[in-house]
Design a protein that fits this description.
GO terms for molecular function: 3'-5' DNA helicase activity; ATP binding; ATP hydrolysis activity; DNA binding. It comes from Bdellovibrio bacteriovorus (strain ATCC 15356 / DSM 50701 / NCIMB 9529 / HD100). The protein contains 31 helices and 21 strands. The chain is an alpha/beta fold and about 750 residues long. The relative contact order is 0.10. Strand 18 and strand 19 form a beta hairpin. The structure holds a DNA duplex (15 and 10 nucleotides).
Amino acid sequence: MDVLDFVTKNLNPAQKDAVETLEGPLLILAGAGSGKTRVLTHRMANMIGQGVAASDEILCVTFTNKAAKEMEHRIYKILSDMGAVVQTQLWISTFHSFCVRVLRQHITLLDYKPFFGIYDSSDQLSQIKKVMTALDINDKMYPAKNFQSRISSAKMMGLSPEGLEKSSKRLMDQKTVEVYKAYEREMKKANSLDFDDLLLKTYDLFRMYPDVLQMYQKKFRYIMVDEYQDTNHIQYLLVQMLASAHRNLCVVGDEDQSIYSWRGADIKNILDFEKDFRDAKVIKLEENYRSSANIVNGATAVIKNNSQRKDKTLFTSNDPGDLIHVREEKNEYEEGRFVAKTIQSMMNEGEGSYNDYAIFYRTNAQSRVLEEQLRTMGIPYRLVGGVRFYERMEIKDMISYLKLSINPADDIALKRIINVPARGIGKTTIEKIEEYAAHKNLSMFEAAEKACEERLFNAGTTGKIRRFIDLMKDLQQNAQHLKLLEFFAVVLDRTEYLAALKKDESPESQARIENLEELDNAIAQFVQERGEESTLISFLEEMALVNDVDSLDQEQNSVTMMTLHISKGLEYPYVFVVGLEENLFPSARSAESDNEQDVEEERRLAYVGMTRARQKLWLTYAKMRRVWGQEQFNPPSRFIKEIPQNLIDFKTSAEAPRFMARYGSSSYDSDFGGTPKWGATSSDRNRARTQSYDDAQDFPDYENDGAGSAPFSKGMRVRHPTFGVGTVYATEGTGENFKVSVMFTDNTVKKFVVKYARLERV
DNA sequence: TCTCCGAGAGTTTTT
DNA sequence: CTCTCGGAGA
């Protein structure tokens, strides 16, 4: 069969057009579930099959490693079905992985060594703290985290310390520049790059060495970028650079699914693509094949409330399916129980397997209660994200040993494990080594060695340090010639890390040993997958860049739980989105923000979550939820209200109120419960109960309060005679003990007993 | 130098 | 509420 016929069969006209358009700038606006991956893979197969480009002349950038793997898999499938032979490896990867690959080749030009290490954000934070100590900057007045985020955003804008200096004049920024500069020096000394560096240094490389850039421009004659709406500025610059020569750039995205602006993603990249490339062809994929019609229509109605979007409407010819289930519960425990019970009874009726169910939430903290409820019902589940595997202490420790074995300059790794397990090398000694290193401009490893030679420590300490240095030298040697798995066993053994854990018989140690076993399994699996390529360096790379979704395998039969963010790109037949409450989803920060765009991003998140569902969708919220041990009463999320009522099946299990709310007028119930237009399955009784929607603070405890004694609720603007104007951040207690926490303009939070504080509403 | 305890901070989201 | 960090005492 003809290649073109083959790759375009079973495609709709828009999809077909996208697959056939190979030359020039192309923008594909792909709504949720519109067959985006299908188009990308078929387009690539089309190029290769027709011989327009060889498989290693196409660069395809995706957002996650999982997406990359998936795409690679599918392309191989199509190509082999077509009878085409692929000689060379495909370049499908994330920006970060792509950059690592480039940098391993060329980073010597930037005066780094090719075996550079990669720092994750906690390593980065340690490095910043180290720098701050050296600069004698008080970390109480200037939190290290602030510097971290400022440095990160500077890097994402493509700014060096000098560039940052020029672009700003504020006080904190002066300090930031100072820290940034010192941080860069330290990172270079440690021969390590942070996440942002991977992109920035590649950009620098291309900028400073046009011949290298040209080589890649010539090589990658076709470029495709997936999830273009979530690219940040530096990624944008990289893409522009690589594509500028041939302009065969195809970007795919959905502005309605841009949910990473907090990480520097710039939605303008996709909105302005047609300005960047005047001759760009635009193709819209608007037919959703994934979800039942009620879900598509509900999600569409929600996203329509955003202003920052292109004119694009999702439609479907699928059956209407179930109405969207909206469920009100008393508190977060009841909410969890409802989810667990629903899954259980559906399973009893033979609906799908556990794999077909997913639960999404806004914040990781919400998972705890849900887990509890699933466990009591005996429902198997797995968490994606949260405390990541490689962020656990014992894993980070072992990784630090591995890192230090190939990159002795890695001071952060050294500091982490020099006394783990305890070797009697204490804080004072470490500080001395650090000082000495700074003084002599050596790495701490070198400094420790030198300090021993020069007898800077007493005999006992010197012996301890010597033993550590010998250990590391031994490991460094072994790292050179041992196979990955063997080496790992050697490290576990010689560092006596495992032995120390085994000696301690606490359950925590037991868990740690199990985690190390899991790490061993991970290495074994890595070796199996990569074969020849499974070096220590490549493994550490994988550990740094691959997140948990990437390893999410569908094999084991269990319910999946994750944050809404991670859910992007996935789909499940049955989806629960929990915690749809104001100040949680949308988050308090965005809801209070004056910037309407913050709420729009939350709305996109809601859109992403809803459109993951193929057949059935539940949206749940709790009237009361404990946050930081405090009870919070938040009204249902505005996003629920934005769904047309004829698409909703509303049920509540929460008690109807005994009396109407006394304070805090509810603007909510007026257009929610009050409107008599419920979905067909809602009974009149449900309708009556909807009244309980109104202000959630209608609890009997308040009955004795004098009217107007505490007219404060979350989000309210108040004035205090001494502290000025602020926003109510949280409330607690009742009656005389009714307290409010107020965040003032300088970001300080103060707690007041309302009865005594002279607070007034603004 | 290590261990234990108390204070204080933190929750958005992660390649 | 829960985790982390820093300080004091053994």
